[in-house]
Amino acid sequence: MQSPKPRLFSGMKPTGRIHLGNYFGALKQFVDLQDTHDTFIFVANLHALTGLPSQETLIEDTRNLVLDYLAAGLDPEKVTIFKQSDILAHASLAWVFNNFVSMQYLMRAHAFKDAEAKKSEVNVGTFDYPVLMAADILLYGTDVVPVGKDQKQHVEYARDMAGKFNNQYGEHFKLPKELILEDTGVIPGTDGQKMSKSYGNTIPLSATDEEVKKAVMSIVTDSRERNEVKDPEELVLYQIHKYFNNSPELKAQYAQGLGYGDAKKMLIDDIVTFLRPMRERRAYYENNPKLVQEILIAGAHKANDIAMKKIFDVYEAIGLTE
């Protein structure tokens, strides 16, 4: 029986170390919503295959993402945490949905357009990405999917596929809604662009003190001197700093000419302080790998029970069980 709380479903791809941009853009919201929603958070390791990672890389990135989930504050007593690859129904349902969509429809997907613009050949996994994502969402009777405004299309595609199936075979899928995270903002990277692994401008969530210091000291600044009046909102340094100290006093210090060297030292201290409890939780789980394994096994059992009932329902509706 589904929880009386609305069911929330989301996850991240294990592709390198997640960073503060990932945290403020998504992971923080997962943590904030875990008390009010029946929360399912998965490791999207099948989606990670589009980049053809090595076996060692995929194993390590998957392990680190699970640790980051737990370090950030996801409570396995409240949240179902599992690996996508442990639930065979994801791929099975994606294949079913492949037959309800056209190539022209998938060519409108943002992920495909972005990939096509960057390289001459796009693998089928990247092209088919929205279909697998729809299967991810729809398997679990999802009510809401927390997304940024630029990711709304993923949920729209899931609704479209659910609607197409329901129109042909009856009401089998709930139509999920996007939960737009209006106030997350976009934390800039050290070079002023959006913080992104592809730009190499990130501050990892699992960063050591030395890594934090090195990253902060590399943040771009202009040539204005100490005590020159500045508009804080125009400064990359402040745009990052306000995520860790959004006080009027700090903003006033920047406006009144806070020196960049002093500001960077303050930011280093603020980030280190912010990351400390996460680092402690991460160390606890790193030192208890059996516990992490038990969390994933429990999550997989719960998720698989739900997913297999849904895939059997789908197969029966289509006529694949006779």
Layout of SSEs?
Layout: E1 7-12, H1 20-33, E2 38-43, H2 55-72, E3 79-83, H3 89-98, H4 103-106, H5 110-118, H6 124-127, H7 129-138, E4 144-147, H8 152-169, E5 177-180, H9 209-217, H10 236-241, H11 248-255, H12 260-286, H13 289-318
Parallel strand pairs: 1-2, 2-3, 4-5
Helix pairs in contact: 2-12, 3-7, 3-13, 7-8, 9-12
Plain-language structure description:
This protein has 322 residues and is mainly alpha-helical. The chain folds into two domains: 7-185 and 288-318, HUPs (Rossmann fold, 3-Layer(aba) Sandwich), CATH 3.40.50.620; 197-282, Tyrosyl-Transfer RNA Synthetase (Orthogonal Bundle). It is built from 13 helices and five strands. It has helices at residues 20-33, 55-72, 89-98, 103-106, 110-118, 124-127, 129-138, 152-169, 209-217, 236-241, 248-255, 260-286, 289-318, and strands spanning 7-12, 38-43, 79-83, 144-147, 177-180. The strands form two sheets. Strands 1-2-3 form a three-stranded parallel beta sheet. A two-stranded parallel ribbon has the order 4-5. Helix 2 (55-72) links the parallel strand 2 (38-43) and strand 3 (79-83). The two termini are 27 Å apart.
Which H/E pattern describes the elements?
Answer: EHEHEHHHHHEHEHHHHH
What is the terminal-to-terminal distance?
A: 27 Å
Chain-averaged pLDDT = 95
* Total domains: 2
The number of strands is 5
Under CATH, the topology of the largest domain can be stated as: Rossmann fold
> Could you say which structural class the secondary elements and strand pairing correspond to?
mainly alpha
- Write the CATH architecture name of the largest domain: 3-Layer(aba) Sandwich
CATH superfamily of the largest domain: HUPs
Report low-confidence residues grouped into runs of 5 or more: none
Rg estimate, integer Å: 22 Å
Enumerate the strands of the largest sheet in spatial order, edge to edge or round the barrel.
Answer: 1-2-3
Q: Look at the structure and give the CATH class of the largest domain.
A: Alpha Beta
The general outline is globular
User: Number of helix segments?
Assistant: 13
Helix content: 40-55%
Largest sheet: 3 strands, parallel
Percent of residues in beta strands: 5-15%
